[in-house]
């Protein structure tokens, strides 16, 4: 009982002695909020769980990362493009395609010249059976990689990715065509 009273007294005394609008108090408050609201720990732990092949635990942690990202982040507080891209990739790995698509399309709003992003989003759409969008994104990825290959010539190192984008684009076209033929 005594320790509860002294703890309460200490807290009240501290509140009286510290101006909560003082610059130092605001800095400490921001640091505390940043530490509790940070996305990095849950994403890092999810990555560890994936490495440990514990997909179920990784999925729960990525759900929390996604929730925090969508609920608590403003444009000014968004994590880096790299962080969000890595989160999107991990969401794909745990088969959370809709959430991965949401995160990756958000990144694309800031960097629409990244062929990998177009490929990842296309992969999500294909997994969700949204073949028209999958085809559109695979085609854009293929065009970007083809253009890059022409510009870089001998320095182009993404031949495998270009081939995969072309194959996936063709697959999406043929499956889409089969769906149309079945409906007729």
Automatic annotation (TrEMBL):
Instruction: Tell me the superkingdom of the source.
Output: Eukaryota
Residue segments, region Disordered = 162-184
Query: Bacterial transcriptional activator domain: from which residue to which, for each copy?
Result: 69-146
The record's annotation in InterPro entries points to: BTAD, TPR-like_helical_dom_sf
The molecule here is called: Bacterial transcriptional activator domain-containing protein
Q: Which organism is it from?
A: Hyaloperonospora brassicae
Species classification: Eukaryota, Sar, Stramenopiles, Oomycota, Peronosporomycetes
């Amino acid at each position: 009982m005594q320790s509860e009273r002294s703890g309460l007294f200490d807290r009240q005394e501290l509140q009286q002695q510290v101006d909560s609008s003082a610059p130092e108090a605001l800095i400490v408050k921001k640091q505390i909020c940043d530490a509790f609201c940070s996305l990095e720990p849950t994403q890092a732990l999810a990555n560890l769980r994936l490495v440990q092949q514990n997909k179920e635990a990784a999925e729960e942690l990525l759900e929390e990362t996604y929730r925090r990202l969508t609920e608590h982040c403003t444009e000014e507080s968004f994590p880096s493009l790299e962080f969000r891209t890595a989160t999107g990739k991990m969401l794909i790995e745990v088969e959370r395609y809709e959430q991965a698509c949401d995160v990756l399309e958000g990144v694309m709003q800031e960097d629409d010249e990244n062929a990998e992003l177009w490929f990842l989003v296309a992969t999500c759409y294909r997994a969700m059976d949204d073949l028209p969008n999958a085809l559109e994104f695979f085609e854009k990825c293929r065009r970007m990689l083809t253009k890059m290959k022409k510009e870089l010539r001998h320095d182009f190192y993404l031949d495998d990715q270009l081939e995969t984008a072309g194959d996936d684009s063709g697959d999406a076209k043929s499956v889409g065509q089969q769906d149309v033929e079945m409906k007729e």
